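Slack export, channel: ligand-projects

TW: morning all. Re-posting the request from yesterday since it got buried. We need the structure predicted with the small molecule present, not the apo form. The ligand is magnesium ion; the SMILES is in the block with the sequence. No rush, but it would help planning for next week.
GE: picking it up
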Amino acid sequence: MTSTTDIKAIIRRHRTRDAAFAVLGMVCLLVCIATLMALLVDLAIDGVGRLSPGFLTSFPSRFPGKAGILSAWVGTILVMLVTALAAVPLGVAAGIYLEEYARKNWLTTIIEINIANLAGVPSIVYGLMALGLFVYQFHLGQSILTAGLTLALLILPIVIIATRESIRAIPGSIREAAYALGATKWQAIKHHVLPYSTGGILTGVIIGLSRAIGESAPLITIGALTFIAFLPPAPVQRTFPFVNFDWLASPFTVMPIQLFNWVSRPQQAFHLNAAAAGLVLMAMTLAMNGIAIYVRYHSRKRIKW
Amino acid sequence: MVELAEMTPTVTAAPPALKAESKNVSFFYGAFQALKKVNVNIADKKVTALIGPSGCGKTTFLRCFNRMHDLYPGNRYQGEILLHPEGVNIIGPEVDPIEVRMRINMVFQKANPFPKSIYENVAYGLRIRETNSRSVLDGKVEQALRHAALWDEVKDRLQNLAFALSGGQQQRLCIARALATDPEIVLFDEPTSALDPIATARIEELIGELKKSVTILIVTHNMQQAARVSDYTGFMYLGELVEFDVTGKIFTNPSNKLTEDYVTGRFG
Ligand SMILES: Nc1ncnc2c1ncn2[C@@H]1O[C@H](COP(=O)(O)OP(=O)(O)O)[C@@H](O)[C@H]1O
Ligand SMILES: [Mg+2]
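GE: finished. pasting the full token output, ligand included:
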């Protein structure tokens, strides 16, 4: 038997360790936050001075004071659009197929392992693949279309995995409820599985897009330009048929490439431009993550399993 | 039609209008045989209960009736379950499981409403039967909710999420959902095992009401429940049907020693 005083001593010892870890954890957290804040503040101090409407509406220029990021942010948005339009339907459908239709055998196991591994492949390898496939084989050119599809490849594994995980989170009893009423597999998917997993899928899509938006290596590999002083043709027009797909074939640049281009120049003034572009890119990423958080919050609030 | 020779004398004594009969039903999960030649007669518009210790195959047997086992690979049926009046063998491979599920609905052990509104939960079975007229849906939803003794509690909040209901209400909602499509048989798999005594009593009362209009097959490991709600009771053990008779006889004067031991609480 341990006496009461012994127990008190033991508890005190345990409490001390408990408190020690709390302090240690807090210190680690502060180190992380402080580093990030320092980076952010540094970027902001350098860049904020260059942020102006003109910076957003000007093309790049030899003169740092006149240079802007118009072609870069328009390029980024258009490329992201293609990426999302390609990766979401493909990835979601593939995820649904794997989770709901595919038989569980060695082939699907191999496919699953491959998808998980593809998520970890360095992005420049996707660039090489895309150069061979989209540019040389399919002759899609060094275009927005090629860029969008390349980044779509890059984020497909993320979308597929997110889709599967959020589908798997739906309890079997809900599916059985639908089947027991006479639903077909597709009805169960359309009426239940997909609606209940939208939040998780969208979160995955946005995590994927947040990764894609910062990529420069694969796009340089497929031949993105670094200096471009015109915009792609507008996707909408006044005359029939009101939409225009010529922009897909247009050359382009994107924010991270513009940023890299400026950083690699010797003049200090261009470095300030790079910092400002970095701030804009971060704002774009934050905006996307904000949407993700909003969507997740709203879908979680509705559905608790 | 009805093969009287198949039945035990006590059952023939009762009016044997049969809704379904299982004939030598065996069932396999892969190589594991969970049911061994089970013969049960399901009387029309009566409550038939299956009792037996956990793992004896009650759920497995129940889920044969709406072909739920077809959802998972490696499952295999043997024998026949004839659904009357046509006498079609609903576990026959040529019969479409979806057609069977359109006729025989199910209430599960744990309430499993969809994360949709109360209204949409009840309407779902109708929607997949392509009933889209708002007025028809409204009528059927109300009727089903009344049938399930839930209407008064939810009539002012039909558009609220079903998850906001209590456990007992959710289970009655699932009953309403199963009733809305006018099924011929409703299967209940231990529908009250997750509920408190008051909610349980309400559902037992409800089952007593429902048998006026629908045939009920209920699985329970609660013997008092079987005694209270059912007209016929089958006792299952290790995948076999040990004894099947009118409920009063099973509980007061069973002919099999094993049944007697079980209903008197000597094991299980
Ligand atoms: N999906 C399954 N795969 C393999 N065996 C199963 C499965 N479901 C149930 N069993 C087995 O079948 C037997 C009967 O189970 P079940 O019908 O659930 O019993 P009960 O409902 O009477 O408790 C048990 O031995 C159980 O382990
Ligand atoms: Mg069971």
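GE: first-pass observations. Residues 16-263 of chain B form a domain with the Rossmann fold fold (CATH 3.40.50.300). The first strand of chain B starts at residue 18 and ends at 29.
TW: perfect, thank you
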